């Protein structure tokens, strides 16, 4: 049984289809419609008879593909209104069947042509089934006819017409929305996290990626505890931890001495993840992509973000794919498209900083020699640090080393040409590891830079991840910082889709994340100078001083509090937004941290049960944590994404509002309902 159909606003190249009318003749908002009928066309379209032209018919669409580009879900229960013609030269029509089924469109779709009065005449629309009828209707405020599918057979609540993909929602009555709330450009960890966060907070999302296939091999190899905490409400941490190594061990090669280090448990008591997690970027992308797919959002690969224009109500992005180009309207664009960002270039945002004099060599190889298997090896060599991870994708070992920069034409941050096997062997010999390269599966050289965008927002376009800041791989900050960007941005774009002015909410993204990115950039710059600089001082430290201090390392590494401070520094638990306009202190005092600070994980009692605080807040949305004698909020309108918890182990009458990204947003020492309501309005939560 066919459960959905979509008329998608999508241009495509077709030799049989004529070129569309010029831009001046395209239908536009506010154009008049003459409500009279001449000929066998649509009643009220104001256009006389005209020979129709088939655009696309008889197309088989696998259910697993969804409705394809241009069709997006809207909340269940809204009428399914489909624009027949939104832009020329053509429309894309697809039928979406139940899982593992396909069905051919029973009738062709024919469209008319633009006339001088900027009206469009549609002649026929394919029916989707014997119990579903097709008729035409005008969308409010639109000058052209539209079809509305009104299914007579109800579907079960929550049912969808596909097993995944951007497409039709058929719970009760299916719907297709021509304008999405958030267009995410780039399907790396940052873009995937942004899309997932926005979707979980009520936004309709579309995510496009220029590359036809996911980029492999991985470049990032570590996920920190703060990132896992922030992803936990999205329900993906279990899948990430299943693929990662939560008990990593390392061997430090300090001259002729080897020192073992345990990087698993540390003395961090306010987190559920007191460890470093060895996790490849490939696995992160797979888990987040699957999470989006199960929610009906499919990554549109092979689709390039090419142009942008904006008006007072929307932004219009031009997307190019193999079958043509389209201009899609959306409320916001999140440009997560890497250091060579098209979004940043189109927005005219400056890119301050410069290149490093060193570059990174990456390689997957099989090695013969005396290497402890399953352990990360770190060599402090005079030319620079050398890392060997037991996480290779094409072979057992992944090599990461530095050397002086060599021009190869590749953009900074992107893998360049391969590195010869002899060069990889020379790097390992210089490090003194005593191993031989038996097989080189893959290698690349990557130029590095340290840069920060002048702004993270320009109108309705936002920058996140490497598009906003680019730094060295030192301290494993790149992927983690990008994900935290996306989790900060995603919920704000989702809440800002509601009517009303949201300048404070949208501006807060740059006000919060740009200072944090600057601090991370300073941290990685310092660490990279110590790890890889060819200057005299760092080379002397690596090659002479550190080997001399090798006997002290076993004692230092066994000190749990020292290791805890290292993990705390690397995981960015120190990031706080106290000066943000969204960090509001009501009446003095109140439970929990100051507004803007990270919400720590601790033991609390809620509804008579002992529970960890992060377990209590492990769901999307805002969480109101009310003290034992705090106010009753039963009659207060809070919003669909607000959850209330009464913490009986917290004395007093205060309350704390935790944001979706795990930071405290509002706190008051007494039950100030008016101040709470003002903060909820500030963040557009209701």
UniProtKB/TrEMBL annotation:
Residue ranges of the region described as Disordered: 16-76, 133-167, 581-600
Domain of life according to the entry: Bacteria
Residue intervals of the FAD-binding domain: 180-522
UniProt KW Coiled coil keyword: no
Ranges in coiled-coil conformation: none
Cofactor(s) listed: FAD
Statement: the UniProt record of this protein carries the keyword Flavoprotein: yes
Biased composition (Low complexity): 16-32
Keywords for the protein's UniProt record, in alphabetical order: FAD, Flavoprotein
SUPFAM superfamilies referenced in this protein's UniProt entry, alphabetically: FAD/NAD(P)-binding domain
PANTHER family named among the record's database cross-references: BINDING MONOOXYGENASE, PUTATIVE (JCVI)-RELATED, TRK SYSTEM POTASSIUM UPTAKE PROTEIN
Name recorded for this polypeptide: FAD-binding protein
Organism: Amycolatopsis acididurans
């Amino acid at each position: 049984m066919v459960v959905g159909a979509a008329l998608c606003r999508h241009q495509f190249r077709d030799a049989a289809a004529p070129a569309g009318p010029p831009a001046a003749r395209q239908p536009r908002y506010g154009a008049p419609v003459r409500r009279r009928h001449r000929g066998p066309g649509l009643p009220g379209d104001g256009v006389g008879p005209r020979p129709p032209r088939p655009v696309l018919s008889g197309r088989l669409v696998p259910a697993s593909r969804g409705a394809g580009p241009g069709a997006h879900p809207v909340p269940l229960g809204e009428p399914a209104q489909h624009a027949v013609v939104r832009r020329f030269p053509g429309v894309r029509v697809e039928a979406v069947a139940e899982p593992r089924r396909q069905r051919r469109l029973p009738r062709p779709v024919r469209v008319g042509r633009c006339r001088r009065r900027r009206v469009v005449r549609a002649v026929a629309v394919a029916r989707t089934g014997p119990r579903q009828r097709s008729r035409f209707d005008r969308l409010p405020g639109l000058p052209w006819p539209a079809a509305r599918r009104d299914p007579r057979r109800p579907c079960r609540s929550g049912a969808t017409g596909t097993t995944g993909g951007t497409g039709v929602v058929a719970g009760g009555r299916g719907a297709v929305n021509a304008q999405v709330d958030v267009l995410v450009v780039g399907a790396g960890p940052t873009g995937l996290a942004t899309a997932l966060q926005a979707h979980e907070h009520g936004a309709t999302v579309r995510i496009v990626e220029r590359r036809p296939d996911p980029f492999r091999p991985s470049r990032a190899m570590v996920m920190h505890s703060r990132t896992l905490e922030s992803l936990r409400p999205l329900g993906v941490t279990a899948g990430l931890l299943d693929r990662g190594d939560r008990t990593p061990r390392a061997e430090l090669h300090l001259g002729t001495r080897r020192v073992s280090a345990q990087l698993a448990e540390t003395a961090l008591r306010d987190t559920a993840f007191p460890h470093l997690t060895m996790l490849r970027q490939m696995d992160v992308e797979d888990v987040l992509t699957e999470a989006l797919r199960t929610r009906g959002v499919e990554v549109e690969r092979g689709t390039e973000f090419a142009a942008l224009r904006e008006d007072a109500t929307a932004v219009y992005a031009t997307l190019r794919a193999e079958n043509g180009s389209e201009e899609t309207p959306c409320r916001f664009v999140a440009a997560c498209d890497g250091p060579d960002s098209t979004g940043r270039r189109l927005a005219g945002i400056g890119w301050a900083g410069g290149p490093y004099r060193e570059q990174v060599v990456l390689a997957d190889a099989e090695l013969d020699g005396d290497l402890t298997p399953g352990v990360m090896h770190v060599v402090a060599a005079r030319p620079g640090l050398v890392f060997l991870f037991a996480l290779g994708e094409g072979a057992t070992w992944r090599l990461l080393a530095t050397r002086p920069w060599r021009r190869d034409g590749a953009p900074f941050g992107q893998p360049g040409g391969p590195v010869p096997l002899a060069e990889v062997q020379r790097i390992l010999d210089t490090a003194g590891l005593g191993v031989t390269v038996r097989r080189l599966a893959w290698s690349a050289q990557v130029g590095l830079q340290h840069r920060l965008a002048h702004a993270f927002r320009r109108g309705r376009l936002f920058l996140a991840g490497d598009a906003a800041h680019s730094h060295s791989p030192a301290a494993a900050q790149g992927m983690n910082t990008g994900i935290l960007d996306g989790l900060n941005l995603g919920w704000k774009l989702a809440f800002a889709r509601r009517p009303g002015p949201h300048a404070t909410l949208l501006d807060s993204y740059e006000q919060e994340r740009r200072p944090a990115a600057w601090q991370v950039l300073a941290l990685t710059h310092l660490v990279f100078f110590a790890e890889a600089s060819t200057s005299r001082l760092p080379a002397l430290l690596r090659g002479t001083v550190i080997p001399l201090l090798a006997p002290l390392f076993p004692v230092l590494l066994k000190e749990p509090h020292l290791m805890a401070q290292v993990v705390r520094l690397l995981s960015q638990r120190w990031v706080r937004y106290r000066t943000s306009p969204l960090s509001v202190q009501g009446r003095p005092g109140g439970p929990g941290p100051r507004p803007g600070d990270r919400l720590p994980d601790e033991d609390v009692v809620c509804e008579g049960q002992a529970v960890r605080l992060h377990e209590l807040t492990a769901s999307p949305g805002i969480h109101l944590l009310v003290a034992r004698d705090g106010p009753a909020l039963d009659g207060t309108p809070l919003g669909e994404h607000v959850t209330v918890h009464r913490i009986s182990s917290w004395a007093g009458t205060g309350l704390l509002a935790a944001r979706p990204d795990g930071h405290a947003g509002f706190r008051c020492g007494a039950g100030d309902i008016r101040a709470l309501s003002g903060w909820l309005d500030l963040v557009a939560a209701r």
